[in-house]
Amino acid sequence: MAGEGGRLVVLGCGFGGFSLLSTLRRSRWDVTLISPRNYFLFTPLLPSAVTGSVEFRSILETPRRRLRDLRVVEGSARSVDWQARTLSCVGAVSGEEFTVPYDFLVIAVGAAVANYGIPGVAEHALKLASIEDARAVRRGILEQFARAEIPGLDGEQIRQRLTFVVCGGGATGVEAAAEIHDLIHEELSESYPELAPFARVVLVEALGRLLTGFDEALADYTLRHLGRGGIEVRTSAKVQAVERERILLADGETIPCGLVLWAGGNAPVPFLQSLGVPLTPRGRLAVDEYLRLPSHRQVYALGDCAAVGEPPVPATAQVAQQQGEYLARALDRGREGKKVEPFRFKSSGMLAYIGGGEALADLPKVKWSGRGAWLFWRSVYLTKLVSPANKVKVLFDWIKARLFGRDLSRF
């Protein structure tokens, strides 16, 4: 992994890119981070930010404050000149085009939200992949309650406006549905006592079960728990189309609704197509056991945009973080001429919030659900937050929401 120069360019500031830069001995490199946003987002708490359990800025960390000895450029890469070793980029704010040379390149651009070609998803559904998305969903929920409050509406119109459909039964979809349900029954029921009985949350999943990455017993428990709480769960229900105020299922059923949240999995970002290198059937960059592109020995990829191993390791924050830490050590050792071992993913388990103060903990040796798992879920995420400032802010957000309720301002 040794090279003639030390110009390292990192594309993306998600879990992969941020953990790489946090672990790297940056003073030994000429490091440039190129990212369209000037912050790292702790995505596991994004569903909580939707409903005000935590506030938006509590789960953001700016690399300029947290990291030193690097250059941060707010922009996006458009293409790579492999011969000249340069990146063609565009500024995120100004839209100006610029070029950046590199000796080593790390591609950690993440993934987009997959819509599987279903009509209407892009036009009529909200997604949950960024802080802007979380703000839009929170505003959308409150807007529907404001719309339902208009005098003269009949019960069917109110029920339609206060039906919130979440499409996707993975961890993001389940957590989002649970958080929205909690918000309605813990907060909005007091502010809108006449409207809250009309509100409902519907969780739609195309496969036969929820949480396919989790232990089946935990997934079955989740299905029962959500049902007891009042969330309507539809498994084996494929969405055929999303329209302005309803979704159409493949079996012919129509669900009138006021808001659709799409949590349907990952799709490749367009930048990967411009690289002219082999992609996997799912559109990810195929890398070797050292996270290198086989055709470009000083170019690496990690996180949701890369596929390593057979079968590939899952596209999760845990994987991206481990890959970033591994690649930082590998790059440092390579420049020193030391031996580099292949990447090996070590699963520490998965967590998910399922509403009503309960969570799942699918650990390598223990499968756990309930109130205790919820306390464990909170403690783990609190320790995983990057900075002491964010740990304190999230802790106080939880305490504040418990004592004084969540902020219901619509902005």
Summarize the structure.
Helices cover 32% and strands 25% of the residues. The chain has an 8-stranded mixed beta sheet with strand order 7-6-5-2-1-8-21-20, with no helix packed on it. The longest helix is centred in the middle third of the chain and has 21 residues.
Helices and strands, with pairings:
Elements: E1 7-11, H1 15-23, E2 30-35, E3 40-41, H2 46-50, E4 60-61, H3 63-66, E5 71-81, E6 86-91, E7 97-101, E8 104-107, E9 112-113, H4 121-124, E10 126-127, H5 131-148, H6 155-161, E11 163-167, H7 171-191, E12 200-204, H8 216-229, E13 232-234, E14 239-243, E15 246-249, E16 254-256, E17 259-262, E18 266-267, E19 285-286, E20 292-293, E21 296-301, E22 306-307, H9 317-335, E23 350-355, E24 358-362, E25 367-370, H10 371-384, H11 388-404
Parallel strand pairs: 1-2, 1-8, 2-5, 8-21, 10-17, 11-12, 11-17, 12-13, 19-22
Antiparallel strand pairs: 3-4, 5-6, 6-7, 9-18, 14-15, 15-16, 20-21, 23-24, 24-25
Helix pairs in contact: 1-9, 5-6
Please indicate the count of domains.
3
The largest beta-sheet arranges its strands as 7-6-5-2-1-8-21-20
How many beta-strand runs? 25
Low-confidence stretches: none
CATH topology of the largest domain: FAD/NAD(P)-binding domain
Q: What percentage of amino acids are in beta strands?
A: 25-35%
Largest sheet: 8 strands, mixed
Structural class: alpha/beta
Distance between the termini: 49 Å
**Average pLDDT metric:** 95
Helix amount, in percent?
25-40%
CATH hierarchy class name of the largest domain: Alpha Beta
Q: Describe the global form.
A: globular
The CATH H-level superfamily of the largest domain is FAD/NAD(P)-binding domain
Supply the number of helical segments. 11
